[in-house]
Amino acid sequence: MTASPRPSAIAGLAGRWIGLAPFVLFTGLFLILPTLHIVIGAFRGTDGEFTIQNILDLNTPTIRSAYWVSIKVSFLSALLGCLIGFAMAAAMVLGGVTRRIKGPLLTFSGVASNFAGVPLAFAFIATIGPAGLITAYLRTEFGINLRAYGWNLLSTWGLIVTYLFFQIPLMILIITPALEGLKREWREAAAILGATGAQYWRMVALPILFPAILGTMALLFANAFGAVATAIALTGPSLNIAPILLYAQIRGDVLGNPNLGYALAFGMIVITGLANAIYIVLRFRAERWLK
């Protein structure tokens, strides 16, 4: 006969599941159910029947352009965020920075990585916007007109620069543990074998860190692609990107077909889902190397 579970074990298991209940409930109500509603709506016609016409209708110049601009903004902000964030994290971890600097930098990164939406847009408009503090100071004190040099905050590159405010700190937070996982013995072994610092990074460190860097870039891409509040508050309807087009559809300003709006949102889910899947796969690979 098999022994029945002890009451204490059953109580412990129940306690763990009860602790997870709020997370499961929150995820189901605000993530899984809305996603299912969007997916079903994307393949439903105005008469309620199954159709793929909504997906086919995404192949219009306006929607294609919105997706392309969104992908370009997300990719460039992710790439620049990775490069700048990696350099800062490497200087912090490997450059002998004291805890007095490292602690505040990580704390600021944790706050800045979640600072977005209307407050972030207002901060950039008030600082480097057409009538921003720095813009006006450069024009009055040095005669430098940023507008004359082609700078426009309310543009694609303006949005990319704004996104870097939370992309760089997020890169620092994610890549710092990977940099700290580089064992000193690897560098010492490379030095004993006659490798220079550049050779160590090219042949040892970067190949090990590459999955983590590439995975983080995929996460930053998804992070920027789904950002809607910052883009709307910064540029309004002047920039044609997928989140703004979707927001206009929700308000009923364009498209005029709710199911086409679901298809537009479904396309965004697919793109961000693929980016997050790449991040998860590469993160597991990076963790295996750094163990």
**Inertia-based shape:** globular
Number of strands: 0
State which percent range the strand residues make up: under 5%
**If classified by CATH, what would the architecture be?**
Orthogonal Bundle
Q: Quick check: average pLDDT?
A: 85
Compute the CA-based radius of gyration.
24 Å
CATH topology: MetI-like fold
Looking at this structure, what is the CATH superfamily? MetI-like
Main pleated-sheet profile? none
Instruction: Look at the structure and give the CATH class.
Output: Mainly Alpha
Which percent range fits the helix content? over 70%
**Pairing-aware structural class of the strands and helices?**
mainly alpha
The SSE order reads HHHHHHHHHHHH
Q: Count the domains.
A: 1
Cα-to-Cα separation, first versus last residue? 42 Å
Uncertain parts: none
With helices defined by DSSP (H or I, 4 residues minimum), what is the helix count?
12
